[in-house]
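In response to a reviewer's request, we include the raw inputs and outputs for one of the modeled complexes. The three entities were modeled together in a single run.
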Amino acid sequence: MPELPEVESVRRQLEPELRGRRVVAVWADRQRRFHQVERLAGHTVEAVGRRGKFLVCPLDGGLELVMHLGMTGVLGIRRAGLDGEAAPYTRARLSLDDGRELTFQDVRRFGGLAVVEAGAYGTVLPALARLGPEPLSDAFDPARFARDLAATRAPVKPYLLSQRPVAGVGNIYADEALWLARIHPASRRVGRARALLLHAAIREVLAQAIEREGTTFRDYRMLNGESGRNATFLTAYGQAGRPCPRCGTPLRKITLGGRGTTFCPTCQRH
DNA sequence: CCGGGCCCCTGGATGC
DNA sequence: TGCATCCAGGGGCCCG
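The model returned the following structure tokens for the whole complex.
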């Protein structure tokens, strides 16, 4: 569920709540995508950052807490103790030194929490270690992006989803950006001119989605439990059968790299 | 190293 | 109504 705009929206609410707080106790479900979460106890959260779809929180003592929401992860902060009815699907709870707790709910268990030495992502978090540039920073260089697209032989959409040419683009915003740039999602030939259009389109759809605090279909919620407001603005993702806003052709849905993919068969070209 | 296919989990929507 | 099937915003792993 959560792509860069959703994770960024969570981060913006989480940072003022968590910064400077010390974790006094940890409870975590036993599951494969948790790594040394118990090391959190006694450490203070110094900041709440983000890389791609990862939340990266520096701790005192040279550690980092890395959180990934997977498809259905939801973070919340609540008063601890009166856990009358524990929220369903709670997989982890971090008790804080102000009497509240940070909860991690995750129906499908695709999300994860890891505590690592700062920056040492190698074996525990390989996807974070080899993540592409942040799309809204100067590190996302248009010329470099064009060279990357020219060098791969994969279809452009699965290549975007690999997180290598750029970080944080998932299934929704890949469809949206490719529609905006008029590029067929299965295209294996994206030349320089179209790569520059796609570069701009990615920035545009992500920035717009952040302004609207993300896209909610079912699971995604911000820290305060509210939905994002971007869903009604989508032009491609989830709109199969509806007319293309540019040319009126019914949008078509295919499967690409195992993911549902919606595009305009007329104005998105190979 | 690359790209493609399947796997990990669970629940909701849809179809027969 | 009951059961089967498909689908879902994530990444990992193995194979050729």
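As requested, we also summarize the result in words. Helices of chain A lie at 4-18, 126-129, 142-151, 156-161, 171-181, 192-211. The first helix of chain A runs from residue 4 to 18.
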